[in-house]
Amino acid sequence: MRIVVTGGAGFIGSNFIRHMLATEPDCGVVNLDKLTYAGNLENLADVERDPRYRFIKGSICDVELVDAILKERFDALMNFAAESHVDRSIQDARAFVETNTLGTQVILDACRRHRVPRMVQVSTDEVYGSLGPSGYFREDSPLSPNSPYAASKAAGDLLVAAYVRTYGLPAIITRSSNNYGPYQFPEKAVPLFITNAIAGEALPLYGDGLQVREWLHVQDHCEALALILRNGHNGEIYNIGGKCERANIDVARHILRTLGKPDSLIVHVEDRLGHDRRYALDMSKLERKLGWRPRIPFETGLKETVGWYEDHVTWWTRIKAGEYREYYQKTYGDLSHVSQ
After folding, report:
1. Where is the NAD(P)-binding domain (predicted)?
2. pLDDT for 228-287, tens place per residue?
């Protein structure tokens, strides 16, 4: 199998590439990534010399580049490329619309022109909006995004569904719950909390911290995606959940306990605009149709993730300098008065 992975230098994309090269001896991967602030080739340093792997720097919005790549003939395209941080989308939505919506349209047109046998759109549970204290999102739940990020992803998903219906494009949409694990850019909640706690710095927690998320280890996610790539049905949507709901404040406390740090490092900051209260997925379709379910318990996966960041301090300290530090202070304010 020869596949194009877009956004393969990011968190989930890099883990997926590593998973495919490790489990599919005959798999060849071309990684197309623009290398924005969250794309990092260090994430794939261990496979960069693998003859089955090739990196191309570029944007999915570049019509000529995407077209030239797909002329080589591939068995599938996995679209991980996305602007994905809600806070950044609130500050400036333009890049999110360009990449997540227009970029998806460029990919769809190229896949159609070159008759790519399978396109997988890797999406998010955030397109469904916010849940109350009970219930779950199903694949046929209406889309009701509440942030510019979620709206741009929902628009991309709708384009995929339209190309399936209008042109018969062989495409699949997946929507996962919150991922965590190694190589995650440290502006997201879990790596932010872990790296701040290691450094003895404040853990900024939005509002009351009682927002509930469903957590999925990235390795479980990659295994589900590989299964869907092989055995999924064109035109389908698959929810990929971790079967683990936790309030944000409980995640922060668990990380602090794991590292032997005090809860006093948690600092409540002004809540995010339009902050969704709860996400949770009904993933019975994926279990029933393809026999998949998550393997890694949250407590086990989180402990291993904490250990990974402890062992890769150089990786994240380099990231959390310069532009990141300016963005952090703009988002959360000066929290330097809180330290261990």
Report:
1. 5-305
2. 999 999 999 999 999 999 999 999 999 999 999 999 999 999 999 999 999 999 999 999
| Dist. CA 13–CA 310, nearest whole Å | 22
Domains, the chain, with CATH or none: 2-180+216-240 (3.40.50.720)
CB 132 within 8 Å of CB 96: no
Report the relative pairing of strands 245-247 and 212-217 from DSSP bridges: antiparallel
Residue 332: Cβ within 10 Å count: 17
**Tens of pLDDT, residues 88-135:** 899 999 999 999 999 999 999 999 999 999 999 999 999 999 999 999
pLDDT score of 217 more than 80: yes
Amino acid, res. 231: N
User: Are 228 and 176 spatial neighbours (Cβ–Cβ below 8 Å)?
Assistant: no
Cα–Cα distance measured from residue 333 to residue 17, given in angstroms and rounded to the nearest whole number: 36
Please list the active-site residues. Answer: 125-126, 149
C-alpha–C-alpha distance, residues 177 and 220, integer Å:
11
Using the structure block, give the residue that is written with the tokens 């590593």: 18
With tokens 């402990």, the residue in question is: 303
Q: Tell me the two tokens of residue 215.
A: 């957590």
DSSP labels, 218-233? HHHHHHHHHHHHHH--
User: Which of 301, 323, 60 lies closest to 187 in space, CA to CA?
Assistant: 323
- Determine the Cα–Cα distance for residues 221 and 300; give it in Å rounded to an integer: 16
* Residue 294 and residue 218 in contact, taking contact as beta carbons nearer than 8 Å: no
Q: Dihedral angle at the C-alpha atoms of 316, 174, 24, 104, nearest 10 degrees?
A: -80
Query: How far is C-alpha 152 from the geometric centre of its chain's CA atoms?
Result: 14
Which region holds residue 274: left if phi is over 0, alpha if psi is between -120 and 50, else beta?
Answer: left
The DSSP secondary-structure symbol of 321 reads S
- Assigned token pair, 62: 């570049």
Q: 323 pLDDT exceeds 90?
A: no
